């Protein structure tokens, strides 16, 4: 595996993702996705396209901001495959939600994304997540490879 592609994915997707998420910057966050996005899974077990995902994200970020709440997300990887202009990446995410009063909760989930380099920049085209087998997710998150550990995926 050419780790250069993984570093490009990090620069275009995985490094900006948590920053924009924490800033609740919906327009910049949504620009990480392809307009042809397929979004599936999640707690509601739904599937929809970019327009619905954008609407859902904008409303959720606005609601968090209005309540004075914050959210952060971190990713760890169990598989990263990239070649030419396409990539498939699987892993575990950690989401920390903190209310304005300081009360916080931590959630874990599995994700699988497919990305494509469009106009010289990587964008997520398919985004799936699940909280199946949630009892082991914290352990799996800690055992998985850090986003910057691209050498873990060299052949």
TrEMBL record:
The keyword RNA-binding does not apply. It holds the Pfam family DUF4440. Keywords: Isomerase. Transmembrane segments: none annotated. InterPro entries: DUF4440 (IPR027843), NTF2-like_dom_sf (IPR032710). One of its GO terms (molecular function) is isomerase activity. The keyword Membrane does not apply. Residues 22-124 form the DUF4440 domain. This is Ketosteroid isomerase homolog. It comes from Lentzea waywayandensis. It comes from the Bacteria.
């Amino acid at each position: 595996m050419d780790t250069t592609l993984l570093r490009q994915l990090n620069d275009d997707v995985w490094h900006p993702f948590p920053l924009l998420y924490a800033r609740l910057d919906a327009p910049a966050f949504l620009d990480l996705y392809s307009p042809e996005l397929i979004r599936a899974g999640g707690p509601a077990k739904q599937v929809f396209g970019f327009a619905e995902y954008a609407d859902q994200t904008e409303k959720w970020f606005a609601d968090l901001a209005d309540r004075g709440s914050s959210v952060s997300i971190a990713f760890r990887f169990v598989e990263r495959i990239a070649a030419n202009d396409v990539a498939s990446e699987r892993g575990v995410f950690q989401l920390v939600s903190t209310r304005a009063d300081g009360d916080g909760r931590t959630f874990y989930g599995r994700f699988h994304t497919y990305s494509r380099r469009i106009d010289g920049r990587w964008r997520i085209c398919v985004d799936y997540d699940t909280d199946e087998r949630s009892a082991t997710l914290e352990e799996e998150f800690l055992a998985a490879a850090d986003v910057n550990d691209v050498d873990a995926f060299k052949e």
